[in-house]
Design brief:
- The chain is α+β, with helices and mostly antiparallel strands and 360 residues long.
- It folds into two domains: 280 residues, ATP-grasp fold, B domain (D-amino Acid Aminotransferase, Chain A, domain 1, 2-Layer Sandwich), CATH 3.30.470.20; 79 residues.
- It is built from 13 helices and 14 strands.
- It has a six-stranded antiparallel β-sheet. A six-stranded antiparallel β-sheet has the order 12-11-10-9-13-14.
- Helix 1 runs parallel beside helix 3 and helix 1 packs across helix 4.
- The longest helix has 27 residues.
Length: 360
């Protein structure tokens, strides 16, 4: 009885938080109310797909932001409550997303070079165990490095971009000893990627990345959408929650389709902060990224829906930054996350167990 109560509370708290979050965003934008006809269409669609009505806040928010109405928008509360952990296995999520294990899952994939990583309190240089003192020494003089949590870091939190001399950050920041202490355990320090010149045109201070949403259906991997995430002036990260902007990419051409979107209060963004026009901007090596995602997704058999983050290095090669087991959906920039596959994906959930409930 207690276990069932805890499971129910986990779901209800997340549901409540999602509602609070979207209501906060709606207050910040110029809201365009849905008509009664649109609300009826949404209810009819989800009654058919999931056997229930859904909150329409998200439909109203996305419609207000991008001007495109669709019944296919995925409410975040339903996504977290029912969809993602019917598609993905909740119970194994923590081990798989640990960036320290990428050496095992993706040994042949171009990734940022790891200098030091901490896993469950143990230090490693590559796959070789080292002492804390040895780890500190490896970080003593670094020309350009990035540190981040290796397990549950989200939305760019806990990321530091720095160089060091004699064990201390050159910008007057903390020592490596203090950096290690700030994380405690489960973190990774890697060489900073030098991105492709074309990607730097979007914003030179941040690593501007491609977020690819892929869906595995039996033995076929579908690319649902790709958006480019762009940092703002002086920022090191490109996450929307850190002020970054997102723009949808035409999968057929690898070019940005139209404008970008940022904070809820912002209108359509036609150019980046550094003046680069977004519409028609060609992403270098786009086809390579798409092909690589289709190749890599089957390596993660417990996850049917994955969000992949890729940079493009100076040589034009895709660089795997991370993959996400419960990715945020870029529906302002792209539109309905599952697109033409929405009905197929939603109907497939009917007979799948909710692995949150099975693994709490």
């Amino acid at each position: 009885m207690l276990i069932e109560l805890l499971k129910s509370r986990y779901i209800s708290v997340r549901y409540r938080d999602d509602i609070a979050n979207i209501k906060s965003k709606m207050k910040q934008c110029d809201l365009v109310p849905l008509t009664q006809g649109q609300i009826s269409d949404i209810n009819a669609f989800y009654q058919k797909m999931l056997g229930q009505k859904v909150p329409t806040y998200w439909h109203e928010y996305f419609y207000s932001r991008n001007g495109n109405f669709s019944v296919r928008y995925i409410p975040t509360c339903i996504y977290h409550q029912q969809i993602i952990y019917k598609l993905n296995q909740f119970g194994v999520r923590h081990a798989y997303v640990d960036k320290g294990l990428y050496d095992l899952y993706f040994p042949d994939v171009n990734r940022p070079k790891t200098i030091v990583k901490n896993m469950n309190g143990y230090y490693y240089a590559g796959t070789k165990p080292v002492s804390r003192e040895e780890a500190l020494e490896l970080c003593r003089n670094l020309p350009a490095a990035v540190s981040k949590p290796s397990t549950e870091g989200m939305w760019g939190k806990g990321i530091h971009v720095f160089s060091t001399s004699d064990g201390r950050m050159n910008d007057g920041g903390m020592s490596m000893e203090e950096l290690f202490n700030s994380y405690g355990h489960n973190f990774i320090i890697q060489e900073k990627i030098v991105q492709h010149d074309d990607m730097s045109k979007l914003n030179p201070t941040s690593l501007n990345t491609l977020r690819v949403l892929s869906y595995r259906d039996e033995h076929e991997v579908h690319i649902l959408y790709v958006v480019v995430r762009i940092g703002r002036t002086g920022q090191h990260v490109d996450n929307e929650t850190a002020g970054g902007i997102n723009a949808d990419i035409d999968i057929a051409t690898g070019k940005i389709l139209d404008c970008a979107y940022g904070t809820p209060a912002e209108k359509r963004i036609e150019t980046t902060d550094c003046g680069t026009v977004l519409k028609g901007f060609a992403i270098p090596s786009f086809d390579k990224v798409v092909a690589l995602v289709k190749e890599l997704h089957p390596r993660l058999p417990y996850f049917n829906l994955i969000g992949w983050d890729f940079g493009i290095d100076q040589q034009g090669e895709p660089v795997l930054i991370e993959w996400n087991r419960a990715p945020d959906l870029s529906q302002t920039a792209h539109g309905p996350a599952f697109g033409e596959m929405t009905e197929e994906i939603l109907l497939s959930l009917r007979h799948k167990p909710n692995t949150v409930l099975n693994n709490l």
